[in-house]
Amino acid sequence: MKTWNVMLVDHDRLFSAALATLIGGGPFRVSAHAASADDALDVIAEGSEPDLIVLALQDGMPEEIAGIRRLREGTSARIAVLADTIADRSLSQSLKAGADAYLNKSMSSESLLRSLRLVMLGEVVYPTHVAGLLMSAVNERPHSPAPIAVPPSSDLSKREVQILRCLLAGQSNKAIARNLHITESTVKMHFKNVMRKINAQNRTQAAVWAIQNGLSPLVTA
């Protein structure tokens, strides 16, 4: 069975210990702890190579979001944010900073483990209403730098647009394949083409692009 090394980042040692006990079985092995994002980068610089970083977000302040960004730049590990509450602004900012998941501390242990497995399989995990939150975040950034030029949605095929709309609905590749009556390998091929056309590096960037270009979630084909 595949085992993933996990680093926990939280200033609360008691919560960190409890979380380590919770997820330290099955495919996950907690191999390192850090009190902050900068401490985590120091540990990584010393030779630790986590596959997954679970970072406890306190209040979504700018310095915490900046910490996620530094982690994204300093490691190839997957990053899951564990927040006290699902706050609109910190959710969207965390994803834009490079987090691969935004999860609620109040979720069940089964849901947490399932979400972390999805993250390690390459999925971006977030609440289903993230599309609306991402749109709000875009509207809240009047002074942000101009985005990289991307082709209009008319340059995408009908199927590629459907793929993006399914992505906004939070569907996995398997669910997209089922809804569109195609194979998972075909879904992956379409995703590859879409990413190239819109100059996106990951599914989160693709979701942001889709929202900015007026696409809406597609639950069923």
UniProtKB/TrEMBL annotation:
Superkingdom of the source species: Bacteria
CDD domains: LuxR_C_like (cd06170)
InterPro entries: CheY-like_superfamily, Sig_transdc_resp-reg_C-effctor, Sig_transdc_resp-reg_receiver, Tscrpt_reg_LuxR_C, WalR-like
SUPFAM superfamilies named in the record: C-terminal effector domain of the bipartite response regulators (SSF46894), CheY-like (SSF52172)
Record flagged with keyword DNA-binding: yes
Chain ranges of the HTH luxR-type domain: 149-214
Keywords: DNA-binding
Cross-referenced Pfam families: GerE, Response_reg
Residues annotated as domain Response regulatory: 5-120
Protein name: Two-component system nitrate/nitrite response regulator NarL
Species per Swiss-Prot/TrEMBL record: Azospirillum picis
